[in-house]
Amino acid sequence: xxxxxxxxxxxxxxxxxxxxxxxxxxxxxxxxxxxxxxxxxxxxxxxxxxxxxxxxxxxxxxxxxxxxxxxxxxxxxxxxxxxxxxxxxxxxxxxxxxxxxxxxxxxxxxxxxxxxxxxxxxxxxxxxxxxxxxxxxxxxxxxxxxxxxxxxxxxxxxxxxxxxxxxxxxxxxxxxxxxxxxxxxxxxxxxxxxxxxxxxxxxxxxxxxxxxxxxxxxxxxxxxxxxxxxxxxxxxxxxxxxxxxxxxxxx
Length: 251
Description:
Blueprint: E1 2-9, E2 12-18, H1 27-42, E3 48-53, H2 64-68, H3 74-92, E4 97-101, E5 104-106, H4 108-115, E6 118-122, E7 126-128, H5 140-143, H6 149-158, E8 161-163, H7 164-169, E9 175-177, H8 182-194, H9 198-210, H10 216-233, H11 235-240
Parallel strand pairs: 2-3, 3-4, 4-6, 5-7, 6-9
Antiparallel strand pairs: 1-2, 7-8
Helix pairs in contact: 1-3, 3-4, 3-10
Organism: Streptomyces polychromogenes
Keywords: Lipid metabolism, Lyase
Family: Belongs to the enoyl-CoA hydratase/isomerase family.
């Protein structure tokens, strides 16, 4: 359980997240993930990072139960800072990051996948932000990198999800494959990237980030300010306390 790094092929680092049962990460998990991705990107032998997950889904966001156990705001602050660091680590990784997404990619999962350089998804993958049903806000910055503006808004306001096939149609998912073929497909793309010169691929990553029309770190930090406001006003606790009671689902 936790975050592990392996080297399945030359030039590739595989970072795997595994926090059973649904990969809803506790505060320390987000920091572990950030550290692992940054370390992989700094390795001069690595030219591409594959971000994958074990278990039932890619990522179910933050561990809401951890927040419910906290009488103050330390868990909320920790989760916000941890997500901020993990999302930034993926975006700022010195080499391209390929996200291998299966099952659910929700909440914080959107922050990770949205900041990746490429996404390979299994046929059962779904993407969404159930934040309004969880007493939270955030990651619209990253969902907007996956779908057009008006669809992003509709998905955000309704807490609905989009399928991997739908995101492929919008051009944000590179390939959609059967779940049994996900790992191989992600590694195949990573291997193609890893054939490039190590110095040049790092320059390419920095150059592409430099021409990005949206400053994702500043944009996401702006969103987080409203998350704090929702918590200070009490509305977040009111909504979050219904989690797991009125309806099931992941965070």
